[in-house]
Amino acid sequence: MKEYSQSKINRIKRGQNRATYDVDTINTILDAGFIGFVSYTYEGTAISIPMAYGRKDNKIYLHSSQGNRMLLSLLEVGKMSMTVMHLDALVLARSGLHHSVNYRSVTLFGSVKKIEENQEKSGALECFMNHMIEGRWDEIRPMHQQELDRTLVVEMTIETASAKIRDVGVNDEPEDESLPIWAGLVPLKQVAEYPISDTKLPENIAIPNHVLHYYETHQ
Prior knowledge:
Blueprint: E1 19-20, H1 23-31, E2 35-42, E3 45-52, E4 54-56, E5 59-65, H2 69-77, E6 79-92, E7 100-114, H3 118-132, H4 145-150, E8 151-166, E9 184-187, H5 209-217
Antiparallel strand pairs: 1-8, 2-3, 2-6, 4-5, 5-8, 6-7, 6-9, 7-8
């Protein structure tokens, strides 16, 4: 089992029993998501923004316009952090302070660089597209050179990370467990609904198999 090394920057102090540094577990949580919260500082102000991402091995790919202030700020510093979180259940206890949630979260730390070369940039965007829906890249038209030129692609190399997971039930005080108050879990999940075709599609264009497969496996 490969783990990220622990340091002051990624070590979880509160709720250490829920912490893991296992690389496979962290990658599984990342692959189950598509939106990460990226933190940066702009003119002395701390800002956090949700961003879509793609992952390949220990690389995270982000993209936007060439003038995106967040990505430019990250490139200037050369470092970044990103958090991905899945909410799995509401934990309803008998007392207010014991209410909680079940979740899976990952925080990444690493270095960033700008991808310049066209083939490498296309590969990063392919990773991004296929992270959204596997097989999507092969079904869309090739990118124009002007599109590549207008797109800023940033690669984050994950240098260290940590995950925190809560997947247990109610944790009430023993003396409260006999109270006539309902307690338990309300499971939550994100699901895909049946794909809706664009109204401008020709009538003979059917929903492709990779889209239907995504729908069928995420109901």
